[in-house]
Amino acid sequence: MKKFTAVSDVDNLQEIIKKALLIKENPLSEPDKGKGKTIGLVFLNSSLRTRLSSQIAAQNLGLNVLTLNAAQEAWNLEFADGAVMNGDTVEHIKDAIEVLNQYCDIIAVRCFAGMKNKEDDVNESILSQFEQHAKVPVISLESATRHPLQSLADCITITENRTGERKPKVVLTWAPHIKPIAQAVGNSFAEWMQEMEVDFVITNPEGYDLDRNFTKAVPVIHDQDEALKDADFVYVKNWSSFDDYAAMPEVKENWMLTNEKLEVTNDAKVMHCLPVRRNVELSDEVMDGENSIIYRQAKNRIFSAQAVFSEILDELN
Ligand code: CP
């Protein structure tokens, strides 16, 4: 694997899921694979899971880890090409990446959607600069339009929690939120589910359809109760409008996931990438209930990251 920014960077999804599950059985199976090599984890946005699971995964492989919480600890970055830097920005992203090239064998970056300019976000204006200027493999720790390490963890979680021979029905359901949230997790989950042996549907209110470049032919149902029928897995996530970019069109019905709503499912397991707004996106009873596999999903972030770092190291060694 030369880079990891989307499902298209994975040669064989089933193989990498298998690899991650083997790592889960024995996380220290390759303790020296990254010896003498350094991974830079660059966070332009906040994180709990991605930061810590990536650090654990890298340490399990013997990698040196540099974590830069750029928004808080680094110079104020300039992203515009040709900018006259006579304002608040102190260091151009191009220069920062060139320096990271000197220090790191792998660069991993988190760069959320700015949610102000649709074109910039759709075109991955920050991640693309890392891809352009990095001379080492680049890993996305969530970008404007995708969250691939989360999606791989989601695939691992569904694989190990599915039961029976039948293809599981997986429902991605929109949930309410108090502020506009990017579409990255929803887009990414939709992309990865289309590579899995599952029956996949998306449910969201009118006005909240995700970008068809990601959802393609996946059925989008605007009636949540209808979509949840017979579901084996329900993935809860908020996102703001894509068409009316970053807007929050009014939603009259209550879309918060509750135990009552789960009654029509096939005793569905509930997933969420976290962080979650309790009693806004889903109820306490769902979050703390026996069908929630949300903490297991969070644990699998370690094995998702470790499988990817290991594959990238195969290219470097
Ligand atoms: N799910 C996820 O990416 O969590 P963090 O934002 O805390 O890293």
From TrEMBL:
Q: InterPro entries per the record?
A: ArgF'-like, Asp/Orn_carbamoyltranf_P-bd, Asp/Orn_carbamoylTrfase, Asp/Orn_carbamoylTrfase_sf, Asp_carbamoyltransf_Asp/Orn-bd
Sequence ranges assigned to domain Aspartate/ornithine carbamoyltransferase Asp/Orn-binding in this UniProt record? 185-310
Copy the pathway line from the protein's UniProt record. Answer: Amino-acid biosynthesis; L-arginine biosynthesis
Q: Which reaction does it catalyse?
A: N(2)-succinyl-L-ornithine + carbamoyl phosphate = N(2)-succinyl-L-citrulline + phosphate + H(+)
Q: Give binding positions for N(2)-succinyl-L-ornithine.
A: E142, H177, K237, R277
The residues that hold carbamoyl phosphate are S47, L48, R49, T50, W75, R110, H147, P148, L149, Q150, C273, L274, R301
Ranges where the Aspartate/ornithine carbamoyltransferase carbamoyl-P binding domain occurs = 6-160
Q: What's in the keyword line of the UniProt record?
A: Amino-acid biosynthesis, Arginine biosynthesis, Transferase
Catalytic activity, EC: 2.1.3.11
Q: Which Gene3D superfamilies match?
A: Aspartate/ornithine carbamoyltransferase
Give the Pfam families listed for this entry: OTCace (PF00185), OTCace_N (PF02729)
Give this protein's Gene Ontology molecular function annotations.
amino acid binding; ornithine carbamoyltransferase activity
One GO term of the biological process aspect = citrulline biosynthetic process
Top-level taxon:
Bacteria
This molecule's function is given as: Catalyzes the transfer of the carbamoyl group from carbamoyl phosphate to the delta-amino group of N(2)-succinyl-L-ornithine to produce N(2)-succinyl-L-citrulline. Is essential for arginine biosynthesis.
Q: Which family does the UniProt entry place this protein in?
A: Belongs to the aspartate/ornithine carbamoyltransferase superfamily. SOTCase family.
Quaternary structure and partners: Homotrimer.
| The protein's name in its UniProt record | N-succinylornithine carbamoyltransferase
Recorded source organism is Chryseobacterium hagamense
The organism's taxonomic lineage, starting at the top: Bacteria, Pseudomonadati, Bacteroidota, Flavobacteriia, Flavobacteriales
